[in-house]
Hints:
It comes from Helopsaltes ochotensis (Middendorff's grasshopper-warbler). Keywords: Signal transduction inhibitor. Residues 86-202 form the RGS domain. This protein is mainly α. It has a domain at 77-203: Regulator of G-protein Signalling 4, domain 2 (Orthogonal Bundle), CATH 1.10.167. Helix content is 50%, strand content 0%. It has helices at residues 4-7, 21-30, 41-52, 77-82, 87-92, 94-106, 111-123, 128-143, 155-163, 174-193, 196-202. The relative contact order is 0.13.
Amino acid sequence: MENPLLLFPQLNISASKDKPYYKVMKSAIKEEPHKASKPGAKQKRNRLSLLLQKPEFHEGDHLGKSGNLTKAASVSPEEAMKWGESFDKLLSEKAGLDAFTKFLKTEFSEENIEFWIACEDYKKSESAHELLPKAKTIFETFIQKDAPKEVNLDFHTKEVTSQSIGQPLRSTFDAAQSTVYRLMEQDSYPRFLASALYRSLLQGRAPARAALRRRSRSFTVCDFQGARPNFT
Length: 232
């Protein structure tokens, strides 16, 4: 029997294991096979969305290894209690970030934290030469219309961001990242603190398998005008 990896090279997880986040996402976007009869745009988006959900597309980052999402169960109740002090405190600790990501997956809104992580990685670029490919990948994955992991941004923020993609700066995604941060802080974070997952951690118990819930109403920046994110 032929090796399935030879027939389906895209299943070779090790090939992408050590790639930076933006390179993996970029390859996911551009490696669509060309066919004589091209599928419709909606079919392409659905196929790409499923492709991006595969574990190999998150190897090497905060979301990649399945073990990362269960490590939060080993944190002490005292450590978990500190996550309730502020949203910034939650995201600043890896176990907290993993637990929050696991919670967002139950609400089908993990694109928000993935975008936030991608922006954090983008700002750590060591040279201006790295900015353009990273910026294009983030824009195509999270911001442009019908992007496979499109985040909820107001029209003005989306326009300002798109206009700077051609000559990106380290601050290119600051406004968009700030908007998504506020949405998570004001909408998802309070629900996380009230969730069974978080309560289990406070009680020193491994969290039970969370039931998936349908996506709640998406808040927009208008809901939180005047609120400012805390990146300290």
